[in-house]
């Protein structure tokens, strides 16, 4: 999952070097420089990659604290949709 997330970020930022420098602790906004438009594109790409549907009005942006936090959020969302 980590590599998929980093590949998506790299694609959005058009910066292949991010694949080598991103870590599970990387902050998506501060370290990887996702801006507000990037975040929308990123979330849409995540929906496709992980077969999810985000409610953008209720999304908790604390998941952007790190790639690890995002992975936990995605796993939680996948479990929630599997039991729904």
TrEMBL record:
User: PROSITE patterns this protein is in?
Assistant: CARRIER (PS50075)
Domain Carrier, by residue range, is: 1-78
Q: Name one Pfam family in it.
A: PP-binding
Record-given protein name? Carrier domain-containing protein
- Species assigned in the record: Veronia pacifica
């Amino acid at each position: 999952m980590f590599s998929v997330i980093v590949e998506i970020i790299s694609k959005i930022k058009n910066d292949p070097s991010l694949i080598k420098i991103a870590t599970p602790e990387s902050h998506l906004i501060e370290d990887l420089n996702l801006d507000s438009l990037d975040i929308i594109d990123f979330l849409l790409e995540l929906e496709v990659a992980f077969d999810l549907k985000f409610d953008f009005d209720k999304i908790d942006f604390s998941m952007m604290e790190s790639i690890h936090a995002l992975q936990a959020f995605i796993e939680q969302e996948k479990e929630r949709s599997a039991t729904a």
